[in-house]
Design a protein that fits this description.
Number of domains: 1
Distance between the termini: 53 Å
Radius of gyration: 20 Å
Order of helices and strands: HHHHHHHHHHHH
Structural class: mainly alpha
Largest sheet: none
Number of helices: 12
Shape: globular
Helix content: over 70%
């Protein structure tokens, strides 16, 4: 019995050690991301969404996909806030290809997640931002090509979202937003650290290299595939990705995981299925998997 307890104690010490290292490396990025995301949500959200609505009157043609993708990255809203906003600007006359670009990048990235991802290093951060931006561009182009003159979205079930940042005191409003951010991301952030420690302790490094390393298609495909069931929230996966990169995961595989993960997160899929319908929902899943696979291969070849 004493020998068993000693084994348990030793394993606990190892896991605590790995968790502590991950926590120290990422905690500051998490805090900065929480504060920055809340500041954008409280002070800049209306300006960002106002720009999106004003785009409806602009005569930009296909070039409107570019600012729409950038505004999607800048938007701090979750998917259940993004879709009602998209419904509102759609009723104002915004084109479906612009909306597709905006919604795609909004699903994949936001200012808070950009700051979290800085913990992965400049190369991985750049890959994440550029690949997500390109995903929005390609999504917009495909909708323009194949659904020109036809409706792509069905927003009948959604109305303009009601803001939760309504307290008259702006400082209290900001604190409440920070509190909601901590409540939403904190548990998954800690879970990600624990899972990363478990991977580092019990998964051999050479196995990680065989599965995710190198420039072959297999590693990218595996990363894209596990991104579907494993992704919970952006902050929670940063410790996992950081550990995998340290153990030999290629940048292309990381990019594939960072695209399929948020794009197929269960909470996002539930909302998207409503506005897509079955046929377009299946097309969306196929697009995400194919794009993540191709972009992962290209990154491994050229980066």
């Amino acid at each position: 019995m004493s020998e068993f307890l000693e084994i348990v104690r030793r394993e606990f010490v190892y896991l605590w050690y790995y968790s502590d290292i991950q926590f120290r490396q990422i905690f500051l990025y998490w805090v900065i991301g929480i504060v920055a995301g809340s500041c954008i949500s409280v002070f800049l959200k209306d300006h960002i969404h106002g720009l999106l609505k004003r785009m409806s009157d602009a005569k930009l043609g296909i070039l409107g996909i570019v600012p729409a993708s950038l505004l999607g990255i800048a938007s701090p809203l979750c998917m259940y806030g993004t879709i009602p906003l998209a419904a509102s600007v759609s009723r104002s006359g915004m084109r479906d290809d612009w909306l597709a670009a905006f919604m795609m990048t909004s699903i994949l990235l936001n200012p808070q997640l950009i700051i979290y991802s800085a913990a992965l290093g400049p190369a991985a951060l750049t890959v994440r931002i550029v690949s997500c931006f390109l995903c929005g561009i390609v999504a917009g182009i495909l909708v323009r090509m194949f659904y020109k003159g036809k409706e792509f979205f069905d927003f009948k079930s959604f109305d303009e979202p009601k803001s939760r940042d309504v307290h008259p005191n702006i400082f209290i409003r900001l604190l409440k937003n920070i509190g909601r951010n901590i409540k939403a991301t904190g548990p998954m952030f800690l879970l990600g650290i624990v899972l990363s420690a478990v991977f580092q302790r019990y998964v051999p490094q050479d196995l990680m290299v065989k599965v995710f390393g190198g420039n072959d298609a297999w590693g990218v495909l595996m990363a894209a595939t596990i991104g579907v069931p494993l992704y919970a929230c952006g902050g929670g996966t940063i410790p996992l990705i950081q550990g995998w990169l340290a153990e030999g995961m290629s940048l292309g595989s990381a990019a594939a995981f960072m695209i399929t993960g948020p794009a197929t997160k269960i909470t996002n899929l539930g909302a998207l299925k409503i506005v897509f319908g079955i046929k377009r929902f299946v097309l969306y899943i196929a697009f995400v998997m194919l794009f993540s696979f191709i972009i992962g291969l290209l990154i491994n070849i050229f980066v």
